[in-house]
Amino acid sequence: MRPTVASPESVTWRVHLDRAMWVAGVRALMLQALHPVAMQGVWQRSDFMRDPLQRLLRIAHFIAVTTYGSPEEAEELGERVRTVHRSMSFTDPATGEAYRLDQPDLLVWVHCAEVVSYLEVVVRAGLPLSAADADRYLAEQAHTATYVGLRPDDVPRSVAEMRRYLAEVRPTLRVTPEATQAVRFLLWPAVPERLRRLAPLRPAWFPIAALAYHCLPGWARQQYAVLPEAPGTQAATTQALRAFRRTLNASPRHLYNRLFDEETVRSAEAARERLAAAGYDIRGGFPRGRRVGDRTPDPGRPARLDSVA
């Protein structure tokens, strides 16, 4: 049996273990909000506006378990997600049409907005990936889509396929009042009662969310028009994103783990034990595609992914 869902040699590990994923996750939520129907599903059936941090932590837990959890853990979590989706429906107020949360076209959009955000942001933050690595990542993530009820062939499996999908769906995307309110809320969220002790740290959130906003495609930023964008903003965003990544990468693991909930940390520690038993060197934390004595492969030609979306 495999020690983890995805191999430590996979591109998925390299992307998902990157600490710039915090910015990528917020960017994914902002991009997802541009689909009017999907946004209604979130608006009507999610606790996102009451507790956005919990939503981010659930996403982080899903990523963690489906990346380095055991196959059994991933399938159990996937079944819980599918059960919740099957039990919920909502109505598009513009048309009166009823939708289920597990409608395939909505699941495909959510999947694509997530994985393209993860890929683009971590590469922009400085993770060296080749064009072939980018294709491999999307192919690997096609399997992850099965945990929410899709088939691997339902989602793009290469950068070229992703570009085609996003070009096709683009005419249906627009900023609704709910999307604008969601983005404004992500930039300056309310602090839930259970986290009142963290309220003094609230101003530290805005730079992270602003980075996520400025990492959106140009057309999306133009439609939202929530934050001003002076000449040079995009270059400054890249530099700030790389500095943010360096800062988090320099943080000790025991401190960094405090950002996650206890269940995610327990799952990570169990994965480390399985990897050690399988012969991986985990003395520096999680292995990044290396067994004891192996050499890290040459990353090859860097990918150019800023314009995928």
UniProtKB/TrEMBL annotation:
Domain ER-bound oxygenase mpaB/mpaB'/Rubber oxygenase catalytic: 13-248
Domain of life of the source: Bacteria
Biased amino acid composition, Basic and acidic residues: 291-309
Coiled-coil region(s): none
Molecular function GO terms recorded: oxidoreductase activity
InterPro entries listed in its UniProt record: MPAB/Lcp_cat_dom
Region (Disordered): 283-309
Any one Pfam family match given in the protein's UniProt record, by short name: MPAB_Lcp_cat
PANTHER family: BLR2777 PROTEIN, ER-BOUND OXYGENASE MPAB_MPAB'_RUBBER OXYGENASE CATALYTIC DOMAIN-CONTAINING PROTEIN
Protein's name according to its UniProt entry: Uncharacterized protein (DUF2236 family)
Source taxonomy: Bacteria, Bacillati, Actinomycetota, Actinomycetes, Streptosporangiales
